[in-house]
Amino acid sequence: MSLRLGYYPGCSQSGTAAEYDISTRACCRALGMELADVPNWTCCGSTPAHTVDHHLAGALAARNLLQAEKAGLERVVTPCPSCLAALKTADSHLADEAYKAGVEALLGRPAPGPVDCQSTLQALFEHIGPEGVKARVKRPLTGLRVATYYGCILNRPPGLMAFDDPENPVAMDRLLEACGATVVDFPFKTECCGAAFGMPRLDVMQRLSARILDMAESVGADVIAVACPLCQMNLDLRRGQVNAASGRDIRLPVPYFTQLMGLALGLPEAELCLPKLVLPLEPALAAAQQREAAGRAEAQARAAAKAAKNGTPRSEPVCKEDAPCA
């Protein structure tokens, strides 16, 4: 039976990060998770709103929670960590009567009751799970070395987000491992990429993003998987600026984790929007495929040499592995 959840796309997913929205919807559909859009949703306010007025930030987010409540959507998921933070913060703060009164004055109507808000990553992990994903994999990402980058707010503050480990999260790791990928040990999983400092302080964004790219390359990653539109923009779209500032030429692609999952699920390319990536994914996939083929050939050669030494001819391959990613 299909699981039905309210879905708040957010502004980025309707514009610069459309590939995140499209691939998220495609993966959820393939995994039996129905997403019902929050009717007439509007901007959550994100960072600009709460830097101006906390009641305004609460009202902007609460309006969307009201829309979900009116539509009978008891649980709302969103791909964007910033949207998630805005929705969960408003939902939490509305328990304070004084704050609630200020928000209701701006809304001109009663504030919504509690609404359960989750990231789509959390929903996929908790409602489908690694085993559910693995059962539906058609083209495993065998050999692809992935650095999972969660960003600094997806699981923080822990008291508010209440999902996964705030310092060493593993949900994305487990889902991509279920897709056949090799998740590398990446110590910068939750470091900040510079976020919105890319506008007022380009130098800050360049320095922080360069550290993340540098670390991912040093641990042998083929790609960096992300779950945040702003992180993806800084690490991919602004790669030229980051490389120029650091004096490096790091070419690691930065797909959304849903794009990688979609590949493993055998979804059509049109539903994954891979051409929207500035750094193309295809070379990394090809390199992983070649590395796996070379590894299998080497293992077979060793087995044949051992068999010959023992005087036992061997005509069959040493093993049959999952089909490599393509």
Residues in β-strands, percent:
5-15%
Q: How confident is the prediction overall: mean pLDDT? A: 94
Low-pLDDT sequence parts: none
Helix content: 40-55%
- Count of DSSP helices? 13
> How far apart, in Å, are the first and last alpha carbons?
31 Å
- CATH top level label of the largest domain: Alpha Beta
| Whole-number total of structural domains | 2
Structural class: alpha/beta
Looking at the chains present, what oligomeric state does this protein adopt?
Answer: single chain
Outline type: globular
Rg (C-alpha, Å):
22 Å
CATH topology of the largest domain: Rossmann fold
Give the topology string: H per helix, E per strand: EHEHHEHHEHEHHEHEHHHH
Largest sheet: 4 strands, parallel
The number of strands is: 7
Which strand order spans the largest sheet, edge to edge or round the barrel?
2-1-3-4
CATH architecture descriptor of the largest domain: 3-Layer(aba) Sandwich
Account of the protein in words:
This protein is of the alpha/beta class and 326 residues long. The protein folds into 2 domains: 3-120, Up-down Bundle (Glutathione S-transferase Yfyf (Class Pi), Chain A, domain 2); 137-285, 3-Layer(aba) Sandwich (Rossmann fold). Helix content is 48%, strand content 9%. Helix 2 (46-52) packs across helix 3 (54-70) and helix 3 crosses helix 4. The two termini are 31 Å apart.
